[in-house]
Amino acid sequence: MKISKFKYFAYGFISLGLTSCLNPFAPKLDNSIGSESTLISDQSTVEGVFRNFQYAYTFKDTTIYGKLLSDDFTFVYRDYDKEVDVAWGRDEEMKVTYGLFNNSERIDLVWNNIISVTSDSTNIIRSFNLTVTFNPTDIIFVDGRVNLDLRKNGQNKWQIVNWLDESNF
Predict the structure, then answer these.
(1) Which pLDDT band holds residue 41 (cuts at 50, 70, 90)?
(2) DSSP structure class, residue 35
(3) Please, are residues 75 and 87 in contact by the beta-carbon 8 Å criterion?
(4) What are phi and psi of 35, to 5 degrees?
(5) 136: which DSSP letter?
(6) For the chain, what is the radius of gyration of the CA atoms?
(7) φ/ψ (deg, to 5) at 60
(8) Is the pTM of this model over 0.85?
(9) How many CA atoms lie within 13 A of 80 on its CB side?
(10) How many other CB atoms are found less than 10 A from the CB of residue 112?
């Protein structure tokens, strides 16, 4: 009688093990993530612009980055060595960003507090921390602020028109 109980226990244990076996290398798809949790925003809000900006840098996505910039975009930074402001347009910005994305191993962008915002959200000054890792021995840390002029395009999406870089780099 002890043998038959053991036999039923063994069959039950094996059956349970076979039917409840999960492959840790092929986990189930998580369907609980809703559209409100997507990584990419539709840019209908100013926060969506900052989310897409962070996404573009994190995943080195020039397509998403390009959608952030208006056709008449201008970037301005201070060249402290020459003591002049340097400016360029959208095409040059896309080339520079493409080079940054292709030549870095990792980019981490953290948006901090909004320092200033106009009542119509057309000008925002926000602090950030940027870490660019080109290789394990070449890492650049940039802290600063972006001073952005924003405008809604024809599809009612916010885009960056002017970017005044106020960083320490």
Answers:
(1) confident
(2) G
(3) yes
(4) -65, -25
(5) T
(6) 25
(7) 50, 55
(8) no
(9) 5
(10) 11
